[in-house]
Every structure is written in structure tokens, then in C-alpha cells.
Amino acid sequence: MHDTLNRFRFDGTNVRGRHVDLDATWKAALANNDYPPPVRDALGELMAASLLLIGTLKLEGSLKVEARGDGPLSLMVVQATSRRTVRGLAQWHDPVPESGDLQTLMGEGGHLVLTIEPEGEGQQYQGIVDLEGGSVASALEAYFERSEQLPTRIWLAADGAHAGGLLLQRMPGETDDDPDAWDRTVSLASTLTGLELLGLPANDLLYRLFHEETVRVFDPEYVSFRCSCTKERVSNMLRGLGQAEVQATLDQEGEVRVNCEFCGKAYVFDPVDAEALFAANIPPDSPSSPQ
Fold first, then answer.
1. Taking the model in full, what pTM does it have?
2. Which pLDDT value is given to residue 281?
3. DSSP one-letter string for the chain
């Protein structure tokens, strides 16, 4: 099944895993953007990785992963939520090399910023890691090794139709009747190809890799593309710009149009709408005109 996040574990060991397969979710993210293939594929890998990671967190909230650099691919932002929704975008400038690893695309100063935002009053957590190893997967593995001290391996792939990923983790403090399980399962997973990751359903993929292991696969969780943009948020953004800048745009264009970079939705404010934005900020007892 497509657009699912699948949890599994190896019985009698401390190894667990996640698999994600994006189809319509990935196509929705691409619907309003014409990314060069290297940018598109890097963003698809980051979206798949973000869902794998949010699936490991025991919290209600969101995970935002930002990749920033000074290369042709200057920014990728992906936000995944505990409700299994995801959105993402990338910014780039020409020329984009037709081939090369992520470090080539993002430049020598490229880095990842991971921000965990719990719902309610929970404390926000942020971690930063350099883009090492030339891929999204290797950078995230380095993050887990340094920040979480949690052995983690990740495999990712994306093209114009699908994005997918596989994650293995060795959990401390859990049953470990098979001390060789981690090295063995990682070795088996390392035979995985990008075509298999993008083309095989979860059960078929796990059987191909681990048919000699005892794998417990849990019910799939469905994922979807969903943007959190609203007219209220856009209104607050325009208020932050200030009335003078909004009025200047109205004078020049006749309207203020804001397009969401994630989903492409257009929010249009005419002069009456703009006046209402700032009229709402006037205290009720304020005079309507100078005395």
C-alpha cells in the first residue's frame, strides 16, 4: 500500500524499524513546483526521512527539518506531524549540477537543523548537524550518533513519482537475546537498492530483506500531504510587514497576493480587506480622526 508508515521489529532483539512509502503525498508536494531533478530527489528523501523520524518520537507535535547551505540548493524545509501529515519545499538557483551528492548541491557550509515542537506547553528541542557523507541519510545518521547516542541506519530514495525510506535502530534497555542481530540486520538491509525501495510494497520489501528473520510488522499508518497555511496566519504576516508596505503594494498592484510556497494556495487581499487588517489593531477608544 502506498502513502503509509510501517513499524516493525525483530522479535527477541533490541532492533526496530520503520518503512515509509510516498506516492500521492509526494506528488502533491510537487504539484506547484518544477524542481530540477537533483533538487526534487533531495527534497523527496528529506520528506521520507522526516516521516521516519516523527514515527520514532513518542510525542504529539511536529518535527521540522531544515537543510541550509550556500550552494545551488540553498534551502529545504520539511515539516512532519504526529498526525502523519507532511509538507515541504526547496529553494535553489541555477545552475544546478545534473549529478553530485548533497554536499555538492548545498555547498561546503551545508547543515541540517532539526526542531521538535511538542503541542501544548512542552519544551522545544533543536539539534544541528553538518551535512556529512554527501546524503540526507548519512547526515541524519551522524545526528543520531552524536546527539542521541542511538545507533541508526537510514536508506532513502526519491524520483518524480515516489519517495521512500527505511530506518533501523538499536534500542538501549530492550530485550537483547541475539547480540548479533544489529550487525546482521544492517548487513541485510544494505543490499537494498533504490529501485526496490521505490517499487516494492512494505511487506514485500521486508520479506525480501529479512525472510530469514522473525519480523513482527504492525498495522500501517496512513500519511498525507497537508499544509498548515491559513488566512489568519497570512493576515498576521501582513500585519507584521506594516501598513505602509501593504499600502504600497496596493497602490502598485491593486491587491495584495500571497502564495503559499508549500501548497501553492493564493490568498488575495483587496483594499477593503487590507483596511480591515489594520483597523482590527486600533483600540476601541481610539479617535477615528485627529482632534
1. 0.84
2. 56
3. --SEEEEEEETTSSEEEEEEEESHHHHHHHTT----HHHHHHHHHHHHHHHHHHTT--SSEEEEEEEE-SSSEEEEEEEEETTSEEEEEEEE-SPPPSS--HHHHH-TT-EEEEEEEESTTPPPEEEEEE--TTSHHHHHHHHIIIII---EEEEEEE-SS-EEEEEEEEPTTS--S-TTHHHHHHHHHTT--HHHHHHS-HHHHHHHHHTTS-EEEPPPEE-EE-----HHHHHHHHHHH-HHHHHHHHHHHSSEEEE-TTT--EEEE-HHHHHHHHHTTS-TTS-SS--
pLDDT at position 15 over 50: yes
Identify the CATH assignment for 4-225 out of 3.30.980.10, 3.55.30.10, 3.40.190.10, 3.20.20.70: 3.55.30.10
What are the start and end residues of each CATH 3.90.1280.10 domain in the chain?
A: 231-279
pLDDT (tens digit, 9 = 90+) per residue, 91-124? 999 899 988 789 889 988 889 999 999 887 778 8
Per-residue pLDDT at 286? 38
Q: What's the CATH code, domain 231-279?
A: 3.90.1280.10
